[in-house]
Amino acid sequence: MYIIGRCLCVCLVLLLCFSCGSNESEKGKAKQIAIIVSTLNNPWFVFLAETAKEEAENRGYVARIFDSQNNTSLESNHFENAVALGYDAILLNATDSDGSVANAKKAMEAGIPVFCMDRELNNPDAATSQIVSDSYSGCVELGGLFVRSLKRKGKYVELLGLVGDNNTWNRSKGFHAVVDQFPEMEMVAQQSADFDRNKAMEVLESILQAHPDVDAVFCGNDAMAMGAQQALVAAGKDKAIRVYGFDGSEDAVRSVQAGGLDATVMQFPQKIAETAVAFSDEYFKGKTEFQQKTLVDVELVTPTNVDRYTSYGKE
């Protein structure tokens, strides 16, 4: 009996030690953050994702970037993997304002917070919080510059981004809120180029065949603006037709400096990414209530102030 009792005591001690060790191991395990991005084919999103990853790692978390390649189905796979692998938070740059809702809800229902970066979901209940640029206000300001530059009269083209992205329509609506007030401003073509540089070049080349006498091109992002600029250079019209973008990418800022693009709107992806990581950190520490939407200010970049800016930020 003594031997049996002693064995039981030893087993109990070992069990307690194992349990304590397991708990300590669990406590010491770094939280994991999945950064699911619409596409890494756009330098703006690369900067956003890498900034979020660096900020997360600086705070002691494990972070991994997933590229959805502008495909909602691939994005869905990333969410399923993040849930199955037990990620503790997801930072989402959505592929589609409507189509990504189900993916985000999947994570939320599994108890994983979702913090949206730059692209807003149309269902506020699908995310813990959304951190987005104030695209509408930025394009109201850009629209004012656009009208003044053309002296309130002229023909123009609008290149839209992805039709399923709220940023596309927020920028377009902000722009038209101003430009449509002037009856002699005529939009001769409005077409999507999916935020893509090569597609924008091809689309504008086609439009110019039907409308060779346009005065300006408004683009929903800088990638399209740079593609439009390429098309104009190839057609020998880059000095005659003005081009306006949105993002504040490195090549766009340089183009404004060099007299290429007439203006862009500077977003601050570093602030967006750092805010999303900070919110994740607060969640891990027990915070449960977050502001549904955080708007990050943007700034108009023109030849007169471009020296104050660098890619995706200020000097």
UniProtKB/TrEMBL annotation:
Its main location: other. It is found in: Cell envelope. It comes from the Bacteria. Gene3D superfamilies: 3.40.50.2300. GO terms for cellular component: cell envelope. Pfam families: Peripla_BP_4. Keywords: Signal. GO terms for molecular function: carbohydrate binding. CDD domains: PBP1_TmRBP-like. Belongs to the bacterial solute-binding protein 2 family. This is D-ribose ABC transporter substrate-binding protein. It comes from Sphingobacterium gobiense. The lineage of its organism: Bacteria, Pseudomonadati, Bacteroidota, Sphingobacteriia, Sphingobacteriales.
